[in-house]
Design a protein that fits this description.
By secondary structure, the protein is an alpha+beta fold.
């Protein structure tokens, strides 16, 4: 009988002989293999699956056969007592063979686990911040995005933190899942060899790989979904450089109309534009009250402690202007809790600069010019400024690849 060590030694060549990973489903059970680790994970999954099928059929057949062979007959009310009572070879076989199979499965699973938790030295590093209910991705050059964009053919290490409750980083196509635990820093890595997009200015959601939070994290857990886009390295470098300064390319007078809706995509999980309160108050008119800016400018916003915004805004008070209050609500949302809402909003300090804050406040002041999805309504000043900005970009000479869209 071969030793356990000799069986485990078969794993590396077996894994190396797997077919080249490529887009498209490999089995009826799993999505496409879109990372270099996927074939290795799928092998273990398939091995366990087929072993279960085999033993299910074997045990079912033997069970039916034994029921028939050793059934109690009318002529023998005591049953068929002529069966064997002991068989050393059989007992050793059903003990040793499962042990070998379990050790073989453990060896393959442990090898895959080690491969998943130990990132290569040349891995590109991205910081991930998870909060209720969104992901934010920060790149080494300071760029931020709400979708994860990575270079093709290079290991990517994601370093993850949570600002509130437990979340998870789960990309089914990559066979990668890792919990994001508050108070701890966790990490995992992957390598995606196949590009999903060839136009960094137009990262289409349908092209990207799904990225889910796979731990129930509260009311809007089901909305905590984004995408992973893979670009060839030259296109990725262009996207990264543009992403770090995208807001600087927008004309100051158009910030609220162009940058506002892009940044609002990070707010929509909690704040609606249709008057319906979510985990945060709606930016539009709500419950007989005015819009977020109308409530703020009138200093009528009520807080959990019973005071109103009028107690905080004015000469010698905490805020000099209503805009100051809105800015702190973005950067330090727990400072003043609006009546009826909990402290669920994460801080955006270090993620949104002064221009971004100005764009959001400008959008709040003109919220009636945007539809329920945060896009400029046709015929409004917001639509005119957005169209003018778009036309200027298209008319400008292209330097290599185009600038990326901010999702």
């Amino acid at each position: 009988m071969p030793s356990i060590s000799s069986l485990l030694s078969l794993l590396p060549p077996l894994l190396a002989s797997l077919p080249q990973v490529g887009p498209g489903p490999r089995t009826v059970w799993l999505p496409e293999q879109a990372s270099t680790i996927a074939p290795q994970i799928d092998l273990i999954f398939d091995l366990i699956n087929y072993l279960c099928y085999f033993f299910f059929i074997l045990i079912t057949v033997l069970l039916v056969w034994f029921v028939i062979k050793y059934r109690r007959s009318p002529d023998n009310h005591g049953g068929n007592a002529g069966g064997p009572t002991h068989n050393t070879v059989l007992e050793l076989s059903w003990t040793i063979i499962p042990i070998i199979l379990v050790v073989f499965i453990f060896g393959g699973g442990f090898r895959s686990y080690i491969d998943l938790v130990v990132a290569p030295k040349n891995a590109y590093e991205v910081e991930v911040t998870a909060s209720q209910w969104s992901f934010n991705f920060k790149y080494p050059n300071g760029a931020n995005s709400d979708v994860l964009v990575v270079p093709a053919g290079q290991p990517v290490r994601v370093v993850m933190r949570s600002v509130d409750v437990i979340h998870a980083f789960f990309v089914p196509d990559f066979r990668v899942k890792r919990d994001i635990v508050p108070g701890r820093t966790t990490a995992t890595w992957f390598e995606a060899p196949f590009p999903t997009d060839d136009d960094p200015e137009n990262l289409k959601p349908e092209n990207g790989h799904h990225l889910f939070c796979a731990e129930y994290c509260g009311t809007d857990h089901s909305k905590m979904i984004t995408r992973v886009h893979v670009l060839e390295r030259p296109l990725f470098d262009v996207w990264l450089e543009k992403q770090s300064r995208w807001i600087d390319e927008i004309e100051l007078d158009a910030l609220w109309a162009v940058a506002g809706p892009k940044l609002f995509a990070r707010c929509v999980q909690c704040h609606s534009l249709d008057g319906t309160d979510g985990n945060g108050p709606s930016w539009s008119a709500r419950a007989g009250l005015g819009s977020i800016w109308e409530r703020t400018a009138a200093l009528t916003t009520k807080f959990a402690d019973g005071r109103t915004l009028a107690d905080f805004v004015g000469p010698g008070k905490k805020y000099a202007t209503p805009e100051d209050y809105l800015q702190e609500s973005i950067l330090n949302p727990g400072a003043n809790l609006v009546q009826g809402f909990g402290n669920a909003m994460p801080t955006f300090k270090g993620q949104i600069n002064e221009k971004g804050i100005a764009a959001l406040i400008g959008m709040m002041k003109r919220i009636d010019q945007f539809d329920a999805k945060g896009q400029p309504k046709p015929g409004t000043e917001a639509a005119r400024l957005a169209d003018a900005h778009r036309n200027r970009k298209q008319a400008a000479p292209m330097q290599g690849a185009a600038a990326p869209a901010v999702n």
